[in-house]
Design a protein that fits this description.
With 488 residues, the protein is an alpha/beta fold. The chain is 39% helix and 15% strand. The protein is built from 18 helices and 14 strands. The longest helix has 22 residues. It starts with 14 loop residues before the first helix and ends in a 6-residue tail after the last helix.
């Protein structure tokens, strides 16, 4: 297999050392956090690129926790956190008016120390409840890092801004410009896994004690990394992916505008991505490449666009499909040589747990009306009191205790059910093979060049600090099959 290598480009930071540093930093930020690895990683990525991120989620899912840990990632960083309401005033966000300046100098200036204009990391909760005066000031604060204070423009030390809400901005209320400033958009869901939830409610809450100083990023380092990211190159096949996505949405918009999209569902949403956003999206991809120890954007970075294109949550599924389709085409359009520019680092690839695999490949667990593919790790913890449930053979599930030598059945027939405490699990035949066997069968059916490309792409994805495992991208394999040469 071709090994990817990188060298330190002129004027750039040492990419391999940077990646090792970011790996340790992300591990520290994730300590004690349950199922928040992705959002924490994306928040750090946005901040390193000098961009802002929006978190959509119900109260109590850890949005403010992400912001506080992001602050800890930067050495001596100052933070500002505020919960917006429709009664919030600019004084509460940008600082009160200086009475002495107004009285003695007849100038209208704010005392900004301790408020947003003097902060490195900012968290604004319920962002859409802010009034027009606050929203207008935020536009230039986020984009240009400037704040108009009296008669002069104040340069802001802002590294990253996290906004949050349990709703998206309402249509027709003039929030489009502010919404466009948040380059990464992410939905924070409640904890899904039973084992993660059990750890959450039974832990002492003392797992996280901050980030060691040697891992923290200084302002000088942050500025050097941002400057270095500008030199990260973008291969032509990556540019084609971005341009194809842009063209796809422009064509859809034109058809909708001129009434030629008669077959489209009236609820079909088409995201609008401004030219400014596309430019900033590319900046995020470059930063991802750099933090992953590369001097070139690769296909794994492109999957991050799933978090940066959608405007409405109804668009997410379609956007993900569009991005994955273009990435799959990119795998086949690129050469193995161009995909083979991987850094050689001392840090092993980050291990990622398999995403929702069935316990034995033949059954899934159906809890109530919702089918749940449960991981082996979580499945081993679904029963209480130190016991665990497992499949025995092909036709029954048994409950085992660590203190007993034997096991006893709690549910017998293949299509029966097992009850553990208040949960009832129905056994069903899985409609497909397990992911691994399906993937192996698929790869064995293609020629060596195509197989090499797919394996290189999977390896890139596995090494990328900000992406998920390949099995969590729903349509990638479907599109891989579509683009197999000669209909293999």
């Amino acid at each position: 297999m071709i090994k990817k290598q990188t060298v330190k480009a002129k004027g750039m930071v040492d990419v391999n050392m940077l990646r090792d540093r970011i790996v340790h930093l992300v591990e520290g930020m994730n300590k004690g956090a349950k199922e928040r690895e992705e959002v924490i990683g994306l928040s750090l990525l946005a901040a390193m690129a000098g961009e802002s991120i929006f978190l959509l989620g119900l109260p109590g899912v850890g949005k403010s926790m992400v912001a506080r840990r992001l602050k800890d990632a930067f050495h001596s960083a100052r933070s500002f956190e505020y919960l917006m309401s429709r009664f919030s005033t600019p004084d509460e966000i940008f600082g009160p008016v200086s009475i002495s300046k107004l009285k003695d100098c007849d100038t209208y200036e704010r005392v900004t120390d301790g408020y947003l204009p003097s902060s490195d990391i900012v968290f604004l909760d319920e962002i859409w409840k802010a009034g027009p005066a606050i929203q207008n000031a935020l536009l230039t604060a986020i984009n240009e890092k400037l704040f108009r204070n009296g008669g002069y423009d104040m340069s802001l030390p802002l590294i990253g801004l996290i906004s949050a809400s349990n709703e998206l901005p309402s249509q027709g209320e003039g929030l489009e410009a502010l919404w466009d400033r948040f380059i990464i958009r992410y939905i924070v869901n409640p904890i899904f896994g039973r084992s993660s939830f059990k750890e959450l409610i039974t832990s002492s809450g003392e797992d996280y004690s901050g980030i060691p100083e040697y891992c923290q990023i200084t302002r000088q380092e942050w500025e050097e990394v941002r400057e270095s990211s500008k030199s990260v190159s973008i291969p032509d096949y990556i540019v084609d992916i971005i341009a194809n996505l842009r063209t796809k949405y422009i064509v859809r918009m034109n058809r909708r505008f001129y009434g030629d999209d008669k077959g489209a569902d009236e609820y079909d949403k088409i995201p609008y991505v401004s030219d400014r956003r596309w430019k900033k999206i590319v900046g995020i991809l470059k930063m991802s490449a750099l933090l992953n120890g590369r001097t070139e954007v690769d296909l794994s970075d492109c999957l991050l666009m799933e978090h940066m294109i959608w405007d409405d949550d109804m668009e997410i599924e379609k956007v993900c499909s569009d991005v994955e389709q273009e990435v799959a085409k990119g795998v086949f359009a690129s050469s193995a040589r161009s995909m083979g520019k991987r850094p050689v680092t001392s840090q092993p690839a980050q291990e990622k747990d398999p995403f929702l695999l069935t316990p034995d490949g033949d059954y899934v667990i159906d809890a109530g009306s919702e089918k749940v593919l449960i991981s082996k790790k979580d499945y081993g913890l679904i029963s209480p009191d130190g016991s665990y449930a497992r499949f025995e053979g092909k036709d029954r599930i048994v409950l085992c205790s660590q203190n007993e030598t034997g096991s006893f059945p709690v549910g017998v027939p293949t299509l029966g059910a097992v009850s553990i405490r208040n949960f009832t699990y129905h056994l069903k035949k899985a409609p497909v093979e397990t992911l691994k066997s399906r993937r192996d069968n698929f790869l064995n059916g293609v020629d060596s060049e195509v197989k090499s490309k797919i394996l290189l792409f999977e390896e890139d994805l596995q090494n990328n600090l900000f992406t998920r495992g390949i099995d969590s991208y729903k349509t990638l394999e479907q599109y891989f099959r579509r683009y197999i040469p000669n209909g293999q």
